[in-house]
Amino acid sequence: MSMKSNSKKLNGSPALRKMAPYLMLVPAIVVIFIFKLLPMVSVIGESFMRDGEFTFRTYEILFGDRTFWQALWTTLKMNLVMIPLQIILSFILALLVNNMIKGVGIFRSIYYLPVTMAISVAAITWDLMANYNSGVFNSIISFLGFEKQGLFTDAGQALWFIVIMATWKGCGMWMMYILAGLKGVDTSIYESAKLDGAGYFRTLFSITLPLIKRTMLFVVVANTSANMLLFAPMKLITEGGPQNSTNVLMYEIYKSAFRNGNASRAGAITSILLLIVLAVVIIQFRMLNEKDND
Predict the structure, then answer these.
(1) Domain that holds residue 27
(2) Can you tell me whether residue 50 is helix, strand or coil?
(3) Which letter does DSSP use for residue 51 in this model?
C-alpha cells in the first residue's frame, strides 16, 4: 500500500509533470552535444590555432589562396542551380503522384527508389554508366548519332553531371515530404475554388503553395544544408577534377585535413562553410516569413 501511495504522489506531483518533457529530451540533447556541437566548437577552435598559439594567420593565408576562392565559387555556382532544380522537380513529381488513380503507387515507388540507394553506391554506379568506352550513357549517345561525351572526365561537364546525379538521387525524398504536405490540404478547399471558377494555376499559386508553406520551408532548408555539404561524388568519381572543376569546399576540407594534414586550414574552411549555410538558411526563413506576413 505504501509503495502504491508513493507512486501516486510522484505521478501527481505538478513539479514532476512539468519536468517530465525536459527529462525525456536529455538523452537526445546529450547525443547532439557530443556528436554535433562539441566537434563543431572543436573545429572552429582549431582554425584559430597555429603552432600552439591563438592567431588569425590561418584565415589571412586562406583569404589570399586562389584555390579556396575557386572552391567557394564552384560550391555556390553548383548550389545556385541544384537547389532550385531539385525543389521544382520534387514539387512537380509530388503534384503528379498526388492523385487517387490506379497504379499511382507504382510511380511513387519508382520516383523514391533512388533514395534507398546509398550516395556512395549511386556515385560508383553513375561513374560506371558514364564510362567513355563502355558506359550506358555514351552508348545511347553514340547510338543516336552524336559524339561520345567526357561527362565526369570533361572539365566543362563534370560539375553539371554531378548536379544531374544528385538531383536524380535526392528528388524522391523531397517529393515525399511535399506529398505529405499536399495530403494535409483539405480537398473541400479545392472544390470551393473550382465552384468559384479558379483555374489550375490560380489554385496552385493561390491555394496549394500558401497552404503547404511550412512543408516547403522545411524542404528548402534541408535541401540547402544537404547540397552545400555534398562530398561523395567529388571524392569517389572526380577527386575534385578535372582541372579543379568539381573542387567544392567540402572536398577542399578533406584535402586539407587528410591529405595535407593541415587541421587549422580545414577548420577555417569548415567554419566559413558553416557560416555560409547558416546565412543562406536565415535568408530563406526571412523571405518565406515576409511572404507569410504579406
Answers:
(1) 1-47
(2) strand
(3) T
Asked if 234 and 247 touch (Cβ cutoff 8 Å), the reply is: yes
Per-residue pLDDT at 294 exceeds 70: no
**Dist CA 114 CA 122 (whole Å):** 8
Cα–Cα nearest to 90, from 225, 187, 157, 180: 180
Please state whether the peptide bond connecting residue 21 to the residue before it is cis, i.e. omega within 30 degrees of 0: no
- The CA-CA-CA angle for residues 192, 194, 198, to 5°, reads 115
Contact (Cβ atoms closer than 8 angstroms) between residue 164 and residue 86: no
CATH (domain of 236): 1.10.3720.10
What cell was used for 286? 526571412
Residue type at 25 in one-letter notation:
L
Under 8 Å CB-to-CB from 65, ≥6 apart: which residues? none
pTM summary value: 0.84
C-alpha cell at 201: 494555376
Only one residue has cell 567529388, namely 234
Task: Return all residues near 238 (Cβ < 8 A) that are at least 6 apart.
Answer: 152, 158, 162, 245, 246
For residue 152, give every residue at least 6 positions away whose Cβ sits within 8 Å of its Cβ, in sequence order, or none: 126, 127, 130, 158, 161, 162, 237, 238
pLDDT in tens, 229-248: 999 999 999 999 899 999 99
59 is a domain residue: no
With contact defined as beta carbons under 8 Å apart, do 285 and 217 qualify?
Answer: yes
Q: Which cell is 13 given?
A: 506531483
Residue 263: phi and psi, rounded to 5, are -65, -35
pLDDT of residue 1: 45
Number of domains in the chain: 2
How many Å apart are CA 135 and CA 94, to the nearest integer?
31
